[in-house]
Specification:
The complex is a heterodimer of chains A (about 375) and B (about 475). The N terminus of chain A is likely disordered. Chain A is globular, with a radius of gyration of 22 Å. Chain A has 14 helices and 2 strands. Chain A is mostly helical and about 375 residues long. With about 475 residues, chain B is an alpha+beta fold. Chain B has 13 helices and 12 strands. A two-stranded antiparallel sheet of chain B has the order 1-3. In chain B, strands 2-6 form a two-stranded antiparallel ribbon. In chain B, helix 6 packs across helix 8. Classes of the chains: A mainly alpha (about 375), B alpha+beta (about 475). At the A-B interface, helix 1, helix 9 and helix 14 of A face helix 2 of B.
Chain lengths: ~375, ~475
């Protein structure tokens, strides 16, 4: 009721300046639900391809099988990174009992899971007394420390690549780590890889369901509430400043250590950054390029802002586009780009500057929408 | 311009549990809903204790994020390939700040399903001392094991031993006949690696509290705390708080104690560097030596070995350098306090009235105005509601640890701030309270109050069930 009245008032106010009928908050929310669902559906699809590759690999470990699993992991990350724009408001991903910590927690103390250069017998895999089940590994995840990560993308990444000990490439884990008789606990390593991959697929399937259309689920409630718009804008602000610029880039720039890069085993951090930046743009514009190359388009936050303040909308749109471009210009590997004296460092720094700029732009955009306080700094 | 989204006009954003910040226009006291003033965060989810002060601008957030990375970092034994985080131990209690303060929140005693712990404690440590004048250390450390019992060690060194906790249930009844039960812990140290403890050893168990709002507490003027002590004495109602007087390693001076369960630390900087050193075995320019006692030959040997490694590799002499320590202190100083949940609900208001009627607010003083905190204009001049006087109070025999700490005697404890208390279950998945986590919920914590708080406890015992529920709901809304 109230929404209809307000929307009508809004249309009347704007009719003298806007040429086309402006998007209503209800339309933007409805389309947001579609965009989120499509993003999680693509991610789930990618994770299932990873699962198929892992299943084939653990059944008969081979170098080709390992490379296929790595390739599937990298492909799936392109979609997952974009879904991080749906975090930071207590939705299905990170509300009470949300699986975010189980899916994507980092940085990871890899010695918590498996042996490392200085401690070859470290980790859960080398402790036969610890059962490797989805429940047991979930309980161990983030137990007694935020870097005690036993599950999710980065645990899988560590198992597929191993420690990154080389300057110019990713980790070089040998396929023999998974072959009985070639490495201690190879059977447990294979089983671990399968269990955490299955768990990732199950968690992503839960998210896809929470956003599936035509059901009594989180999506239905969320898109029916105009208060959700503030959460949507706040979330992309937090991802811009706190998570992406802060936790994922500034910390690494400061320490110049790969311990502080997001996907340190696979050297895929440069793509994580691009995917996050794109995820923000998707929500802002209401457009998402799906895994199959098709584009899902519709009204986005930008359209609502444009109706209130066209200049701000245009500026923020340019700022967000500039961030995506800046992120795409970061050369791989990220762990070399962040080093002092590296030609890539200026590109990384420029991305931080662009993200900070867009954060301030988003605060202005929120103000134009009548949102007084925009928190943009939520860290892990 | 009139905002067209009515629901957004109140300004609250990430409302995980849909709280709205009340505005003065609503006729409510904004300070009531914003415990940290302008620094208050609206987050009520799992990250409720992990946000930077809301008024830190975009550039001032950078050191916060860098500090956060050191706060959650798992330290490893030196030497390691990653030089920025090696130097764990030789003895230690935790590998990271976040081991005990998970998600910047509160630790808990280990599970004890049959009344005895089934795991070694992580978020709960045991302080050790013997009677005597501790001078600038505040206590005389136990001569063989030192000031803390380290139940972990790096691979060439023995852990000092294991901790056994036994709980016994103590039943009681409210005036209306409703039964309750409190669990009283006893502590035993077993598998002692370096021989027996001194016969007169005093043990004080301490749980890791949530890390929010510390810079604001440091910014409360000393004069205001003294004025509260004078007010309590003047009222003559049996409540007589007094400030602790502690040596501060940063200011190199004696200051009022504000942090720790006995107000035995004066500044966030001292607290942060002290915990790195005492709990993780990480040395810093502020605390350059780990505690390896004379009787601990393996610990001392390891220490010398580590020093040689560092020298040989041309690394700094301490495990964490001044800059990283400074960032971590910046982080612990600026972690924000979350806004209250439904402060104006009728039951919450009722509970608030009962809280004041029972004299709880005499020590859990709601409101303060911060003074100037050097380097942190965001934390200065804020009206805050931490619900503490930061003073020491005799809490009775039931809670006594019989161990003095600077000026605090064996029955005295600092009034802990109550802000954020209702979000501990959301962040940390438990509701354990008090200095050693013996209370399983807010009501049990209230019932443990004795000594100067005996009168308040008796009033709660006489409350009806509805009144008790309202009181608990109010405390949980803070």
């Amino acid at each position: 009721m109230r929404l209809t009245a307000l929307a009508a008032l809004f249309s009347a106010t704007l009719s003298c300046t806007a040429l086309a009928a402006p998007a209503t908050p209800a339309q933007v929310l409805k389309h947001y639900g579609e965009l989120v669902h499509a993003s999680y559906a693509d991610t789930l699809d990618g994770a299932r391809k990873l699962q198929a590759a892992v299943d084939a690999f653990v059944a008969a470990p081979s170098q080709d099988g390992l490379l296929a699993a790595r390739k599937a992991w990298l492909a799936a990350r392109e979609q997952y990174g974009q879904t991080e724009a749906f975090r930071f408001y207590g939705g299905p991903i990170d509300g009470t009992d949300g699986p975010e910590g189980r899916i994507n927690a980092w940085p990871m103390d890899e010695a918590y899971v498996d042996g490392v250069a200085n401690a070859p017998t470290a980790g859960i895999i080398n402790k036969p007394e610890v059962a490797i089940t989805a429940d047991a590994l979930s309980a161990l995840n983030e137990k007694d420390g935020e870097e005690n990560i036993s599950t999710g993308w980065h645990a899988i990444e560590f198992l597929l690549w191993g420690q990154d000990l080389s300057a110019n490439g990713p980790g070089q884990r040998s396929v023999e780590d998974f072959v009985d008789g070639k490495a201690p606990n190879a059977d447990r390593r294979r089983h671990y890889l399968k269990v955490v991959t299955d768990l990732l697929v199950a968690d992503l399937a839960g998210l896809e369901q929470a956003w599936a259309p035509g059901q009594k689920n989180f999506r239905t409630r969320f898109v029916a509430d105009t208060g959700s718009l503030a959460k949507i804008v706040s979330a992309i602000g937090i991802l811009s400043r706190g998570e992406l610029a802060g936790e994922r880039i500034e910390v690494a720039l400061d320490s110049q250590s790969q311990e502080d890069e997001h996907s340190c085993f696979s050297d895929n951090t440069h793509r994580d950054i691009v995917a996050n930046a794109k995820g923000i743009q998707n929500v802002w514009r209401g457009q998402y390029v799906r895994a199959d190359g098709s584009t899902l388009g519709g009204p986005g936050v930008r359209d609502l802002v444009a109706a209130r303040d066209a200049a701000v909308a245009k500026k923020v749109d340019q700022q967000i586009a500039a961030s995506v471009s800046a992120a795409e210009a970061i050369p791989a590997p990220f762990d070399q780009a962040i080093l002092a004296g590296s030609a890539g460092r200026a590109k990384v720094e420029a991305t931080v500057v662009a993200l900070k700029g867009q954060t301030e732009g988003l605060v202005e955009a929120a103000r134009a929408l009548g949102i007084k306080r925009l928190n943009t700094a939520l860290p892990e | 311009m009139t905002p067209f989204f009515k629901p957004l006009a109140f300004g609250l954003l990430i409302a995980g549990s849909a709280a709205l910040v009340a505005t003065a226009a609503d006729g409510t006291d904004p300070a009531n809903a914003l415990p940290g003033g302008d620094t208050t965060t609206p987050d009520h989810g799992r990250n409720a204790f992990s946000n930077p002060a809301a008024n830190l601008d975009v550039d001032r957030q950078t050191p916060f994020f860098i500090g956060n990375s050191f706060f959650k970092k798992n330290w490893v034994a030196a030497p390691a390939s990653t030089t920025g985080r090696d130097g764990l131990g030789p003895h230690f209690i935790a590998r990271a700040c976040a081991s005990c303060h998970l998600l910047d929140g509160r630790g808990a005693p280990p599970p004890a399903p049959e009344g005895v712990n089934t795991e070694q404690p992580v978020g709960l440590l045991l302080r050790l001392s013997i009677p005597g004048d501790g001078g600038r250390a505040g206590v005389v450390p136990e001569p063989t094991y030192g000031g803390q019992f380290n139940n972990q060690a790096v691979d060439t060194v023995q852990p000092e031993g294991r901790v056994t906790i036994r709980y016994t249930e103590q039943p009681g009844r409210f005036a209306d006949g409703t039964p309750y039960s409190l669990r009283k812990p006893s502590y035993e140290m077993t598998d002692l690696a370096y021989g027996p403890l001194h016969p007169d050893t005093r043990v004080s168990p301490r749980v890791a509290p949530q890390v929010i709002g510390l810079g604001l507490l440091e910014a409360i003027p000393e004069a205001d705390l003294r004025a509260i002590a004078e007010r309590q004495a003047r009222e003559g109602a049996g409540i007589s708080g007094r400030p602790n007087r502690v040596w501060d390693a940063v200011r190199q001076d004696w200051v009022i104690g504000r942090f720790g369960w006995k107000a035995n630390v004066g500044t966030v900087a001292h607290q942060t560097a002290g915990a790195f050193n005492g709990d993780i075995g990480v040395t810093s320019p502020l605390f350059p030596h780990e505690e390896c006692m004379a009787a601990q030959a393996d610990c001392q040997a390891r220490q010398q070995q580590e020093a040689q490694w560092r020298q040989g590799r041309g690394e700094p002499a301490t495990d964490i350098d001044a800059r990283a320590l400074e960032r971590t202190i910046y982080y612990t100083t600026t972690l924000a306090v979350p806004s209250r949940r439904q402060p104006d609900a009728p039951e919450v208001r009722h509970g608030e009235a009962l809280f004041h009627a029972a004299q709880c607010a005499s020590c859990h003083v709601p409101r303060h105005v911060t003074g100037k905190l050097e380097g942190f204009p965001e934390l200065s001049g804020q009206t805050i509601t931490p619900y503490t006087d930061l003073l020491l109070h005799d809490m009775g025999e039931g809670l006594a640890d019989n161990r003095s700490d600077f000026a605090a005697d064996g029955r005295e404890w600092r009034t802990p701030p109550l802000w954020g208390i209702g979000l501990i279950p959301t962040v940390n998945g438990h509701s354990m309270l008090l200095h050693d986590g013996r209370a399983r919920n807010i009501l049990e914590a209230i019932l443990w109050h004795g000594g100067e708080a005996e009168g308040a406890r008796e009033q709660v015992l006489r409350m009806s069930r509805a009144e008790r529920d309202a009181l608990v709901r109010f405390v949980g809304s803070l």
